[in-house]
Write a structure and sequence with these properties.
Length: 237
């Protein structure tokens, strides 16, 4: 007795041969590849090869570099390298190294003077210190004349050997001026810390650190400051 849910072989509705199914699937895949959006391609059907495998097959595999473990080993490597080169080749290599090092120093100095955070010295890093620099650079202070005054004091000490009376008088005047500069620096530190507290509640530097930083910045001649001033005198910070 034949079950109603089974079909006889060769009757209509039977499953198609396997080769017909495969052909249809292949045509469907091709049609799908053609119907992809612009800028997209069909999957390549294989994993992306690793760089190491590609380099090995192309014969361009880079050799592994083993750094010297001790200074003695480094010296031996330099001696061996020098022995394998002629004097002209070794001289040219040293010249290229000096030129590259000089270019790197110039770039680092230029970026530091421009205020690039990646090249700043540790003493100048931080958003609070950037604000302090801009605040000091946008104003004039008596402390800006600290270095010229110090030079005058040195000259007075030299002249004092021949004219002690004049040297003593000028020394008293310079001492009074230096006291005024110190007082001005004290009030500058207080002002800077007050502004930093208002703008940076989560400050990362102490009050003494920022106050002394502002004082030393103000005592330098504007052209000699590092990093170079990024604001003009009178600008609003």
């Amino acid at each position: 007795m034949k079950n109603p849910f089974k079909k006889d072989a060769g009757t209509p509705g039977d499953a198609e041969p396997a080769d017909a199914i495969d052909t249809t699937d292949a045509l469907t895949d091709l049609d799908g590849a053609d119907s992809l959006p612009k800028g997209q391609t069909a999957k390549k059907g294989r994993p992306t090869p690793k760089r190491n495998d590609v380099e090995r097959s192309a014969g361009t595999r880079r050799a592994h570099y083993d750094a010297p473990l001790t200074p003695k080993e480094a010296r031996e490597r330099r001696k061996a390298e020098k022995a394998s080169m002629t004097k002209e080749e070794f001289r040219d290599k040293k010249r290229r190294q000096r030129e590259e090092a000089a270019a790197a120093r110039r770039k680092a100095n230029e970026r530091m003077m421009a205020g690039d955070p990646n090249y700043l010295l540790p003493r100048d890093q931080g958003k609070e210190k950037l604000f302090v620099r801009n605040y000091v650079d946008s104003r004039r202070f008596m402390m800006n004349m600290f270095l010229p005054i110090a030079l005058i004091v040195v000259l007075i000490m030299i002249i004092g050997m021949t004219a002690p009376a004049i040297a003593n008088l000028v020394s008293l005047v310079m001492l009074f001026v230096i006291v005024l500069l110190v007082i001005e620096g004290f009030f500058l530190g207080r002002k800077v810390n007050k502004l930093v507290d208002e703008r940076f509640p989560d400050r990362a530097f102490g009050r003494w650190t920022l106050g002394f930083y502002a004082f030393t910045r103000a005592t330098m001649i504007r052209r000699m400051r590092t990093p170079a001033p990024q604001v003009n005198i009178g600008d609003q910070v």
